[in-house]
Design goal:
By secondary structure, the chain is an all-alpha fold. The chain has 2 domains: 101 residues, Rna Polymerase Sigma Factor, Chain: A, CATH 1.10.1740.10; 77 residues, Winged helix-like DNA-binding domain superfamily/Winged helix DNA-binding domain (Arc Repressor Mutant, subunit A, Orthogonal Bundle), CATH 1.10.10. 69% of the residues lie in helices and 0% in strands. It contains 8 helices and no strands. Helix 2 runs antiparallel to helix 3. It is elongated and about 55 Å long. Keywords: DNA-binding, Sigma factor, Transcription, Transcription regulation. Belongs to the sigma-70 factor family. ECF subfamily. It comes from Streptomyces fildesensis.
Length: 181
Amino acid sequence: MAEVAGESRAGERDPAALARLVAGAQRGDRLAMDELLTVLTPYVGRICGPVALEDGDDAAQETLIAVFRRIRQLKEPAALFGWVRVIAVREAVRLAKQRQRTVPAELSELPAPGDPELAQDIGDVLRRLSPEHRAVLMLRHVEGLDEQEVARVLAVPLGTVRSRLFRARRSFRGAWGGAGK
C-alpha cells in the first residue's frame, strides 16, 4: 500500500511533507500539486457534502479548482487545511444557495438508535435547512470548531454565527420532532 506524501498510513498528516508539497505546488511543480490535491480531496468532500447535499461533488470540484488557482496566495503552509476549509464552505454554500431547495420529507416512524435508517433520516431533516444553517451546524458539530472559528471561516460576525446556530438547532429540532408525527 503506497503512502501519500503528507499522510501516514494511520491517516495522520505530516506537517513537513505537506509544507514541501505546498512549496512545490506554489513553484508550479505539477506532481506536487497533483499529490496535494489528492491529499485534500477526501477532506474537501467531507466538508462540501453535508452543506451542498446533491451538489457536494460539484462544490468539492470547485474548491479544488480554487485551491489549484490560488495556491500561491497561501502564505503559511501550516494553515493549509484551515485555508482550504474556508474555500470549501464558501463554495458549498454558494452552490447550495444557487439551487435554494427545500426537500419536504415525510417520516412516518423514527428509527431506533443504531438503526441504519437513522443516518438517512437525519440527512432528510438536514436537507430542509438552509445552506447557511447546514454550514454552521457542520462546522460547529462535525468539524468541532468553536463559534469564533466558525465566524472566521464563514467571514461573518460572531453574533451572526450564534443566531444561525440557534435558528439551525431550533429548525432541526422542530423538523425532527415533527418528522415522527
